[in-house]
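Hallway conversation turned thread

IA: we were arguing at lunch whether anyone had actually written out MarR family transcriptional regulator end to end. Turns out nobody had. So, for the record, here is the sequence (102 residues) and right after it the structure tokens. Reply here if something looks off.
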Amino acid sequence: MLGRRGAVRQSVLAQELGQAPRSVTQSVEALEREGLVERTADPHDGRSRLVRLAPEGAKALAAGTAAGEQVLREVFGPMGAEQLGNLDQLLDALRAGLSGGA
């Protein structure tokens, strides 16, 4: 989310992730200790903190994204259009079954 949206309030981050604010605070503190995110005061609300990716966090995100894309290419690359279409239909059926729809 930080990679897409840039700096966001911790409260927004918690809401978007569907997590308790305290849990997000603990996670952000740990990521900050690792140098992956930075926290600053919100210039519009001094009580709030903005969280943004640190340069090292942006590098880690890029590396993780590239690795994930490589895995997807290795797994799904050999499949033809028909096989991918069949897989898409099966996944739609699974989603419908899990959500209770038919």
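OS: looked through it. The two ends are 32 Å apart (CA to CA).
IA: good, adding that to the notes. The CA atoms of residues 3 and 31 lie 14 Å apart.
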